UniProtKB/TrEMBL annotation, chains A, B:
<dbReference type="InterPro" id="IPR036291">
    <property type="entry name" value="NAD(P)-bd_dom_sf"/>
</dbReference>
<dbReference type="Pfam" id="PF13460">
    <property type="entry name" value="NAD_binding_10"/>
</dbReference>
<protein>
    <submittedName>
        <fullName>SDR family oxidoreductase</fullName>
    </submittedName>
</protein>
<dbReference type="InterPro" id="IPR016040">
    <property type="entry name" value="NAD(P)-bd_dom"/>
</dbReference>
<feature type="domain" description="NAD(P)-binding">
    <location>
        <begin position="7"/>
        <end position="192"/>
    </location>
</feature>
């Protein structure tokens, strides 16, 4: 299974490409914004595709040609300019969904934020609300997009070493999770078709990642 | 026919309430953000409802109870903080759609911007693109919302006195249009069910507004 990793140069994305290249049955194509980011992925034996998420669907679609799944883990982050929030976190995600469809790719794994329900937009601080709204609409769009989706809602991200154990369910108590474990949850989702059509929150816990994903 | 005008205190909204109150068969309920904006609408004999578009769907829904149609002409404008663009132009519009449905109101007229196609997001300047994207997704959401919609895409808005004559079609050449004429196009759309399920661009032209709307 070949997987296009959108946002490969991000903090989660780098772990995802690395885990995919270490896996048995998966191969990564790292979608990156700049040519100079390519070398580190090529060193892992991964393919690369240089595309900007502000490019059009056709350009993104070319990067998705011949893959079996797309992982979207790009993000402007909550602290970039607000102008990028809607263009990357919402429009970039939706364009990638349309690009996947255009390339005939059905499987789509989206990394969302912990709580993207309507109530969470309302409850968010003024500076965080636009980010939650962008994530909310990206998630809602994917659920209506006729793709084999999985939406992952990780808790507060840390750079701790992965623990390999998580708690995953439709709703869990808010907690931390290392980015490395989020990447492992992504790979476990790709490897388990039972995650298709599901969305779940995930934080550090007591269940092995493969088991946690299988039990969703 | 009673019409909830969302964004009544805006430049187009004021014209809409005034034209509705002058019409034969329509009555307005002006949805406004602040109590002190109520007097001018009450002087026109219009009802008022004080609701903030950042309130929840339930609150907006109460304002829509008992009306036959909703006109959404609120907007953060292209020059407000980018954080408001997604919260008002997209999320405010979508919450109003959901509120209309919750209140059992089927008819929904949305005032969009001139060109909200995907290509227009791409073509827009960096500072304008987030606004176009928010409008794009609001339009797309409405088309999928199971409401009796009309989406109006006016040209460059001016404060000139209304001319009463426009050119309206799916695509027209970009040009100006007085806000007063946009308001008249809204009222003509409310009065003509042939506009249901349609979206059109409109600029100053040579056809009487009622005829132009009827010919869409």
């Amino acid at each position: 299974m070949k997987v296009l990793v959108v946002g490969a140069n991000g903090q989660i994305g780098k772990h995802v490409v690395s885990l995919i290249q270490d896996s048995e049955g998966l191969e990564a194509r790292a979608m990156i914004r700049k040519e100079e980011q390519a070398a580190s992925f090529e060193n892992l034996g991964a393919e690369t595709a240089v595309v900007d998420l502000e490019d059009d669907i056709k350009t993104i679609s070319k990067a998705a040609e011949g893959v079996d799944a797309v992982v979207f883990t790009a993000g402007s982050g909550p602290n970039t300019g607000k102008d990028k929030t809607i263009l990357i976190d919402l429009d970039g995600a939706v364009k990638t969904m349309e690009a996947a469809k255009a390339a005939g790719v059905k499987r789509f794994v989206l990394i969302s934020s912990f709580d993207t329900r309507r109530e969470a937009i309302q409850a968010a601080s003024e500076s965080f609300a636009p980010y939650v709204a962008a994530k909310h609409y990206a998630d809602e769009w994917l659920k209506r997009a006729d793709l084999d989706y999985t939406i992952i809602h990780p808790g507060r991200l840390t750079n701790d070493k992965g623990k390999g154990q998580v708690h995953a369910a439709v709703e869990v108590e808010r907690n931390e999770i290392p980015r490395e474990d989020v990447a492992a949850v992504i790979v476990a989702s790709l490897e388990n078709e039972a995650s298709i059509g599901k969305e779940f929150q995930v934080v550090t816990g007591n269940t092995k990642i493969e088991e946690a994903v299988a039990s969703i």
